[in-house]
Hints:
The complex is a heterodimer of chains A (310) and B (530).
Chain A: H1 2-6, H2 17-39, H3 56-86, H4 92-132, E1 156-157, E2 160-161, H5 176-199, H6 203-235, H7 242-274, H8 284-309
Helix pairs in contact in A: 2-3, 4-7, 4-8, 5-6, 5-8, 6-7, 7-8
Chain B: H1 2-6, H2 19-24, H3 28-56, H4 67-102, H5 110-118, H6 120-135, H7 153-156, H8 159-188, H9 201-232, H10 246-280, H11 287-301, H12 316-328, H13 330-344, H14 353-376, H15 378-384, H16 388-418, H17 424-450, H18 465-494
Subcellular location (chain A): Membrane
Enzyme class (chain A): translocase
Organism (chain A): Methylophilus aquaticus
Amino acid sequence: xxxxxxxxxxxxxxxxxxxxxxxxxxxxxxxxxxxxxxxxxxxxxxxxxxxxxxxxxxxxxxxxxxxxxxxxxxxxxxxxxxxxxxxxxxxxxxxxxxxxxxxxxxxxxxxxxxxxxxxxxxxxxxxxxxxxxxxxxxxxxxxxxxxxxxxxxxxxxxxxxxxxxxxxxxxxxxxxxxxxxxxxxxxxxxxxxxxxxxxxxxxxxxxxxxxxxxxxxxxxxxxxxxxxxxxxxxxxxxxxxxxxxxxxxxxxxxxxxxxxxxxxxxxxxxxxxxxxxxxxxxxxxxxxxxxxxxxxxxxxxxxxxxxxxx
Amino acid sequence: xxxxxxxxxxxxxxxxxxxxxxxxxxxxxxxxxxxxxxxxxxxxxxxxxxxxxxxxxxxxxxxxxxxxxxxxxxxxxxxxxxxxxxxxxxxxxxxxxxxxxxxxxxxxxxxxxxxxxxxxxxxxxxxxxxxxxxxxxxxxxxxxxxxxxxxxxxxxxxxxxxxxxxxxxxxxxxxxxxxxxxxxxxxxxxxxxxxxxxxxxxxxxxxxxxxxxxxxxxxxxxxxxxxxxxxxxxxxxxxxxxxxxxxxxxxxxxxxxxxxxxxxxxxxxxxxxxxxxxxxxxxxxxxxxxxxxxxxxxxxxxxxxxxxxxxxxxxxxxxxxxxxxxxxxxxxxxxxxxxxxxxxxxxxxxxxxxxxxxxxxxxxxxxxxxxxxxxxxxxxxxxxxxxxxxxxxxxxxxxxxxxxxxxxxxxxxxxxxxxxxxxxxxxxxxxxxxxxxxxxxxxxxxxxxxxxxxxxxxxxxxxxxxxxxxxxxxxxxxxxxxxxxxxxxxxxxxxxxxxxxxxxxxxxxxxxxxxxxxxxxxxxxxxxxx
Lengths: 310, 530
């Protein structure tokens, strides 16, 4: 009997959640397209597609609906995984599958961020110096300076105004970003401390460690929101501020999005820890989140060096 | 051990029937069947789009459609054939055959597997929906930029570009999920005793494919995300006025796009040697050499991307680097060709349909490879670039090297999957019609391309008229021949001569030790490989 169980791989029941999540994705994506098509504006503020403005509102509701479906179905799906885990369906063999799968998934996330880092390096090293290097009488981008941060030329180019409302200031590496770095680095330490607690079967240390990690993550997000607010209202730095604004907000924005997801995941395993889930030997759910959190941490270090400091 | 007493086979003896079976399934064979069926349907959809193009190009001048619609058909044809026909076919084979070939009870992550498939129909809807919306006055149709999304055209384009961006996002999620599942299955689910170097070649081909997908698909997702923000949120990634560069998109796109070629072909290179050894009745030649060559190609695939846009302008050292590295790929590929031919050498060969497709595949894919070498030459490429020569070249690699390889696989494994033999006469007829009409379609395109006919233009100079007419006739014969393929598959699934377990006299490997068709749960106890 025992040997039979060793060789038995758990193949779960059929489940409708994956197919319904796809319905949610379809609704979210097409709703987004309808919404932006209906509400897009030109540089001067005029509506781009006046005949299609009626699409904006239904598009918005399709997005909400899609998002709600996705979140609810993910909740149901993960609940059934937790139930299966608690009833002992996952043993060493299944556990190894989850581990390899999580590592490969994090690798794909690294590749996603690599695209945006690649764009940053390309612009700084190639396209910005290139654009500034043309002779003034042949370039339409006359005031272009080969400096970083770059916000593009001043004035009107080929009929469109590229001058931001006000000149922006780049984000400094000290102040909030430095605090954020310290917050994330300490959160990496607290989650490791929580993991030690789990391995030693010290539940109190586990729960407190996770709580501290969540608190640090949430504080990070609040600081980032404050930083964005400051950038938009006082520094004139927006998504539209040329190559610098685009890379700054897309890189830190996607990172912030990942921190948000990571924090949600941390909250889930924190609640599970309080309920008594996870054992010293068997806690992939915890480790998967911890790995993800460390990944988000490492991406931040890359951001801090290449976006803020250099 | 309170945990072991609960867990037994109780959880998966029966499954729902009807539509719910397919919507909820976690069974690798069900999911494989869905992937393959979806692929066949989309193959016909994408094929009919291009027949519209060939009908327009039958004569010079504009006859059937306006240029805008012509461009839309071309772009959506390519996206459908690549993402919705070829890739799902390869994933379908992986689902069906990998667990059987490596002696696994199922794929490692069954529910994720199901999700990976069910993302595909919504993405197909997103791709084609703009055609329908245009009929109701919403937007101006599907994306008209070609499948490559080059800015600034794609930044200026209409609603179709947005839909295509999201379709690509969803298809990317599907591919990443599929790849995670395949990597985990190969590393964690092999039968005891089956070391990596004893794996079937198909598993090797797919493992490297999955690594390439993990490394490159997210980059494409990032690139089209930048496109989306450039379109709607005022970023300047691809706008020189803000310090960006449209050519940066080409770099990001082809960093994905070139490995994509190998993503489409590596699974085929995996099972082609297996078909060759079956019908040559001798073991495949140079197993290790083939594995190392697959790795070499996989590694080179991610460092050669810029040969797709030599003419866009880059420094001479970059041109030289991308030329030499591209040409270096022909070395491991030559090793593979040698091994394939050497497998047949002095074999006791027979030419059932899968073998016919495989031998035809080697010849035609060889032409695709050799014409690629000419394109990789920086000096010569200025003449070839953006001409019909390129179109002919990549159809020799992707239709002959991709689709015809998939067809060889379909005929090879169909008796195993359905339990029935397909109609051999019809199969052979299908091969000859496909092979001949394929050449009739694309050989003329080499000539018009060399003479300077640009691709993606609905009208052409009178001097190209004859060749285009021949090409269009070939395309219609090619398209209609595929109805034979569909008929043969459907009738094979519905009945026919009973297939034996081994099916083919020379077939080797674990999948041929199971009954045809295999039971719903194949290896409940893992076999031991010596």
